[in-house]
Amino acid sequence: MEPTREQVRAVPKVLLHDHLDGGLRPATILELSGEIGHELPTHESAEALGDWFASAADSGSLERYLETFDHTVAVMQTAPALARVARECVEDLAADGVVYAEIRYAPEQHVEEGLSLDEVVAAVQAGFEEGVAAAVSAGRTIVVRQLLTAMRHQARSMEIAELAVAWRDRGVAGFDIAGAEAGYPPTRHLDAFEYLQRENSHFTIHAGEGFGLPSIWQAIQWCGADRLGHGVRIVDDITVHDDGTVALGRLASYVRDQRIPLEMCPASNVQTGAATSIAEHPIGLLKSLRFRVTVNTDNRLMSRTSMTDEMTALVEAFGYGFADLRWFTINAMKSAFLPFDERLAIIDQVIKPAYAALLDG
Predict the structure, then answer these.
(1) 198 dihedral zone (left: phi>0; alpha: psi -120 to 50; beta)
(2) pLDDT tens across 155-196, in order?
(3) Structure confidence by residue, pLDDT tens digits, 43-102
(4) CA distance linking residue 255 with residue 267, whole number of Å
(5) Per CATH, which fold does 5-360 belong to?
(6) Annotated catalytic residue 129
(7) Is 324 a known ligand-binding residue?
(8) For binding Zn(2+), which residues are annotated in this chain's numbering (predicted)?
(9) Distance, CA of 145 to CA of 129 (rounded, Å)
(10) Is residue 19 marked as binding?
(11) How many CB atoms within 10 Å of residue 192?
(12) Which of 268, 137, 150, 128 has the alpha carbon at shortest distance from 203?
């Protein structure tokens, strides 16, 4: 039985790749921009502003896509604003059936009004805790962790890595680097990754989205990434022959053999040109080959998406059923930067029972 949209919304979902500054409510941007005098492309209405973000991001260029963040980051420069955005993020995810989420953002982008990096993380954590409490009051359960991101074109990665380690027992699950891949290889931040490895810390790296196989190879073999942010270009190392047989190159084989998680973001990948359409997205091939594929939103505002939207689109494009959605969800929970016993508890006590009720029924 093909899952309905309502059923997809109801089942537990796990989100590993979602940017805090890419998921604001348009109404919140309008309100916060008015308070600080920031000029927006439109002040007509929240709906019109949401339309602008979606159309501006739908350009087929990662660089143009990233420009939309100028407006969201601008309104996230004070502790109250950061806490509000973080709280609303959790509330929106919980309402969408997300039971575990890792939300990433770059602390270095939120210090223009005088906040320290530590104060930025504290404000976001306070907002997350408020959001979790609000979700519980609404009868929903969600666990949320921070991923601290360093911008790959800047030189603060070691500082952010140290910040992630300092906060790892207070709500931060790991580290990430993000930004335009071309010209900014992950090896520029090798000292930060080596430090994190010495500290037994977790990290993911944006790779294989706007650039090809060299980006993935460096992220894994030079930097030691636990997961790959996007990683869609791994298909460049996979050959599908006319007779249907498939040959994996050495890098693709390594990624599959080592069960390196791929944080796939279908709607975003289409917008940035990393995939031509949902139906042609590499996720279909990679799932059939049993790569460790996960489904994510990336930037809910820019892509006007949600986990329900992403999974429903895959159901429609590939004919996936509940067993497939469960597979994606358990893949993500297995790959989370959370202690093993906590991951297992969510899988056994939350995810499996919910899907069993649908599959057995």
Answers:
(1) alpha
(2) 999 999 999 999 999 999 999 999 877 788 999 999 999 999
(3) 999 999 999 999 888 876 666 677 789 999 999 999 999 999 999 999 999 999 999 999
(4) 23
(5) TIM Barrel (3.20.20)
(6) no
(7) no
(8) 17, 19, 206, 298
(9) 10
(10) yes
(11) 23
(12) 150
